């Protein structure tokens, strides 16, 4: 406990005529006994802090940027009323910059034997778990001259989940999926598709879809309709190594990969496919397997919440071995990694045949839009050099993508805001072609 009213006492005594009081603490009390008595009474009447009982309730998770309300219940078991200032401390990333002071501090009065509630509204700015620190309470006496101060540990954790901003694209992708699934007039046929039903022939239909036996039994020409196969296995592989820490549009590349993976998982689960997740750099950082269509998205969001880029070089052989263990049967492996020349040529390409001979492989990478803007620079010598450097970087990236395509890999290379819909389109194209 801290006696913080001493400054107030000195200020009050400072109004006395010079020479009446001794500058020492003892002298001050001697020459102004009534004020000293008032301060002692004020301190004695301040409600004790350590006897207070504190409990928490409220939200345990929230999407990044959304509010989370945490309620703190303060019970005063003493015979004195509590008049206090309270600070509910959380990590700095629990609020936007500059808002912590207003959001974490409260004033309250709790009569003897009663309880009161205060609510702290968090608005996390980083993914992951945010743990409460301590609750500091400063109890005032009736005159406000002296205070009692103490701290309490009241544990609570709020998990900030990925924001999933790409969910706005889900309705349009589901409409396209319904077309592929045979629920609308657009019907597809390809390697690996399943027979769905018969319908009457209309001009423009593929004549190879005509069912001659059914036609012989009816007065009209009948054609077979097809739908993409269901219950395919999709493994989302997130490279959480050094390259995923690079910032694009003021956010790590990993964040854009997470958002794209969530859109693909939502779309694939609606299509009846099974979705698993593997996050790897030099060891497994997250693994989600065997979830139902209803549970897969919440499970992925929860697992992705605590993922952070690791500043180590990704072990491509270890990643490949982990992917093969997770997907023992033929699957679509979606590898979200970089298209930088060195990591691909030295790490991924030597082990890529192990994946492509058993699985369909799709590589998705986050492109930096600043590079595209640099290619348009003109007007000064520095701007021309920037444009030349950007053009060379784009050329090397395209060359790396071509190397992957020669191994039968589908490549998606897009900026952060376009990666999620582009990856969903690539999945739908593979499904329409019967490659799943």
From TrEMBL:
Coiled coil: none
UniProt entry keywords in alphabetical sequence: Lipoprotein
Keyword Lipoprotein: yes
Segments forming domain DUF58: 198-371
Region described as Disordered: 87-107
Protein's recorded name: Lipoprotein
Species of the source: Streptomyces asoensis
